Design the sequence.
């Protein structure tokens, strides 16, 4: 099975702007299920996604990673469809399917020939409320998840550093723990934990169904009513805010792991579209990320990699679509003979420059064009269109935000970019982790060169 | 009301050795309540304590501090005894009462003339299962707790630094969050949260009653049966282990708060009596703490405060009686003109010395005598005797450990002290926080000189 945890991959995903010719149609069923449909008749294909408002940031200590574990268990069968049948039926219908868990959501999707949408709906509605959670299946799937953690985190120096880094940078935000969960928590999942998690969060009034493709929206609403309409809603208690305390000074850590190359990650506490006092701040941070890391002509590549040849690679990342405030991150690997500390100074000099100098009109225009080009490119994919709608909806912003992206990015001024650099990229709100490479033994694969962005 | 949160105060509490002439009598009632009695007929007084196995380390994110909040609410009345009556009755009977919450326990106690023990039992049994939790009372008491947090943490530079420090030093251990709770969590307690916490943890099979004083143990058991025997047990699910991940390198943070003096705190990850592979390691760490900070002739005072005059104060602390692994901490305030970094180097030089040189026979004997003298002194107090039994029982070690303390401390060798210094006081397992004083405004009280130890 090809399920995956998408974590860092999603961090830099811009919002595609909606096509005015094919607006999003929305219907909320009586049981609270929200259905979003975007018709796209360019090919006879449909993408169907079910988004649950639950992810690792919903998890209490002791059972971290349980949303991801439950995602795996969602393929283990129901009364109607025993274990394995879900994937078999989708495959028999020529479909492609997958699932992913993030900090703020758990999502399931199928891509199929458009007429097969009922197959997807029937299966998803079935497992929304009637999942079998059996000790034997959990035991088996725990091995899969344990192995997944080993491969993706424990044997991946960058990911390992990232995990320790997040745990330091956040004091009380639930973003401090990894999506896949801490090892001791994974080792101690019980069927009852999964059952409780499933019953608490998997309900029509905690889900959004997003359909993009060669469909008629009214027909999709009717289908949704037919398959999902009979499911009972749950009482969903509001989450506690867990607002991160204010950071009162810089934090630094060394992380010693087997690896070939040193590297560093820096993160400043920043607001997102969900938490910013003014929307423009989040869009200005998005543009600022583009100034530093928007292709090969952006500043980090141009000045630190090619110019001063301080770095083998250097990048910046910011996500404006998350439920809680997060980090504006810089990551870099020093060139041979250069230290992580030299590189850190150079990265900070770039931040200082953004705080002092206005980005020129030409550079700003180029960056905006690049940021928007990325969005346009993604609009070409039904999957990404659905994903953006689902994500906006699930973090509480509402899918309508997709419509504003282009104009909001275009409205960002050089002054605003400088303003957010001054307000948010402050030393007192900075955390830094240095990866200090340790000898790699024969068994350990060297994959520290793989950038996560 | 004089309730308090005892946190750091408990960290350095040694175990008193039991008096062979007055052994502890134990009885477990049919409903699971454990009753411990230690007769002490020197004065006609009785100390009665009820210990619940619940504290801040049991709390999930979002409701941190709820054990402490519930401790406050435990004085808000039952069917039989309306709000305020508890304290009034105790006072009318000439008693003294209090309660405290820690990482691993919540405890309630009364000290009374020995014949009044039934008064205490009646009230404690009543509120163990029949507490009223009302929204109005919560609202009022929330103001008290909010003010308590402001005074004890937010306006106390050392405490504030300690809170940030713990959140950095621990990655996933529940010791990461403060006993009093994070501000956003305190601000969002609901009556249902407290109700659920009370129902989950307040039950005879999750409690230990400890009685020390001028009583007859058989009579106490009969009384306990009479008052507590009718209470129904609960199903108490075992806690998830939440084993802290291995730290892979040093961590450092600056904490900028209004204060007069800079200071620093250093913490090494160490095992406790509960988690050490061999008991002797925990006792050796206890002795090691005494070498550094066992009165004015101990090394930190002698060498850093009086000798080199680097520090105004310097201390070391370790607690061997906690449920989970914790930190061996060093705290110091530099002398005028000295920096926290100089002081850090000097503290590390002390650690290095312990790793290289054996403590001399004379010094070791003197330290052991001091450590044990502290224990003997505390044995004089019925309150502390009860406290030690309750704490040992509540963290899962069993009260019997109290008997071993003297012989185990006496058995610690200089080689063992060097061994634990080498094994556990490692740079890679170290976290450091530097308090960088900011200007104090007129409203802010200067209490940063107050040592927490």
Sequence:
């Amino acid at each position: 099975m090809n399920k995956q945890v998408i974590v860092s991959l999603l961090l830099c995903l811009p919002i595609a702007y909606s096509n005015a010719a094919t607006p999003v149609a929305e219907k909320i069923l009586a049981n609270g299920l929200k259905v979003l449909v975007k018709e796209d008749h360019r090919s006879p294909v449909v993408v169907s996604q079910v988004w649950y408002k639950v992810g690792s940031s919903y998890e209490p200590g002791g059972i971290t990673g349980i949303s991801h574990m439950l995602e795996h268990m969602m393929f283990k069968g129901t009364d109607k469809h025993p274990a394995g049948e879900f994937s078999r039926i989708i495959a028999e219908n020529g479909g492609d399917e997958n699932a992913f868990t993030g900090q703020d959501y758990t999502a399931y999707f199928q891509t199929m020939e458009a007429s097969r949408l009922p197959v997807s709906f029937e299966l998803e509605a079935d497992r929304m409320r009637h999942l079998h959670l059996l000790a034997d299946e959990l035991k088996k799937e725990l091995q899969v998840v344990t192995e997944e953690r080993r491969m993706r985190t424990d044997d991946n120096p960058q990911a390992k550093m990232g995990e320790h880094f997040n745990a330091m940078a956040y004091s009380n935000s639930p973003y401090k723990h990894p999506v896949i969960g801490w090892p001791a928590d994974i080792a101690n999942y019980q069927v009852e934990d999964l059952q409780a998690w499933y019953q608490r969060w998997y309900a029509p009034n905690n889900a959004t169904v997003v359909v993009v493709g060669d469909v008629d929206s009214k027909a999709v609403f009717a289908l949704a009513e037919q398959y999902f309409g009979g499911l009972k809603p749950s009482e969903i208690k509001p989450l506690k805010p867990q607002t991160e305390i204010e950071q009162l000074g810089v934090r630094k850590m060394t992380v010693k792991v087997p690896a070939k190359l040193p590297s560093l990650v820096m993160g400043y506490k920043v607001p997102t579209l969900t938490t910013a006092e003014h929307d423009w701040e989040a869009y200005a941070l998005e543009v600022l990320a583009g100034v530093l890391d928007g292709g090969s002509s952006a500043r980090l590549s141009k000045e630190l990699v090619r110019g001063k040849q301080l770095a083998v690679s250097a990048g910046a990342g910011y996500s404006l679509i998350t439920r809680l405030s997060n980090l504006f991150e810089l990551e870099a690997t020093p060139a041979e003979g250069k230290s992580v500390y030299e590189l850190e100074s150079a990265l900070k000099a770039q931040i200082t420059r953004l705080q002092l100098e206005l980005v020129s009109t030409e550079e700003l225009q180029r960056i905006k064009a690049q940021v928007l080009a990325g969005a346009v490119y993604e609009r070409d994919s039904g999957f990404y269109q659905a994903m953006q709608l689902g994500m906006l909806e699930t973090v509480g912003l509402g899918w309508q935000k997709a419509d504003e992206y282009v104009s909001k990015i275009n409205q960002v001024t050089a002054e605003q970019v400088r303003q957010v650099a001054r307000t948010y990229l402050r030393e007192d709100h900075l955390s830094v982790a240095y990866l200090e490479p340790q000898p790699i033994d024969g068994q350990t694969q060297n994959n520290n060169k793989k950038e996560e962005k």
About this structure: Confidence is low (pLDDT under 50) at residues 1-21, 443-453 of chain A. The longest strand of chain A covers residues 326-334.
